[in-house]
M15 family metallopeptidase (Candidatus Eisenbergiella intestinigallinarum), 254 residues
Amino acid sequence: MPHNRNSFFHRKAAAGVCLLLCLTPLLSLSAPSAPVLAADGLPAPAAADADADGRVTWQEGFFYEPLSEEVKARITGISYGEGCIVPYEDLRYLNILYVDFHRETQVGEIICNQAIAQDLVEIFYELYLAGYPLESVRLVDEYGGDDTLSMEHNNTSCFNFRVVDGTSSLSRHAYGLAIDINPLYNPYVTWPGGKQRVSPAAATPFADRSLDFPNKIDEDDLCYQLFAERGFTWGGHWRTMKDYQHFQKALPED
């Protein structure tokens, strides 16, 4: 009987397919997928999930949670003053890490509206990775709720139930939707009656933004860029006044 060459090649091909199918699971096990990278080339943080107590941990040292009874006691009558229209349930307590002006790692505290809590832990995590210096990150209650005193100490802060300086209108800080960063170097500047007014007054040397100096927030600054990427408005863009320390988001829709 003559040798059938086509049958021989069919058998060889079938054997090869069988071997490939057998090896495929092993190959997939030995070749793990590459990690997902963030825009800066670092491994992307895992998705944030709340635990049983409502705490959401973004990275080690960076989390937010509902206000505890202890925190409520700390702020009631100070930043959470009489007539505060924001329920405790709408606020979040943030724990962050930051690099201070001595290049040392410190633990910071922030209270904000729940609507921006995730934004803030992401932003402060990126600032921490970059070694971006912040002199102080404490609750404004440590200064008796006195915004001017907090600014004079260059303290970064967020929630404070108060009106806009010089007006009767509630500030976005009153809703926990605004934050002031390194305020001594990035002052609030107005021109009542055509005369410049700088707040805090000690920040007057830093009101001239044509000058170059450390801790200055402008459009080239990492802090500005991180907030802008997440839809915050910067007070440095306002026309009738300038609030170089200030980033805010709109009020949540009812």
In short: The CA atoms of residues 136 and 155 lie 5 Å apart.
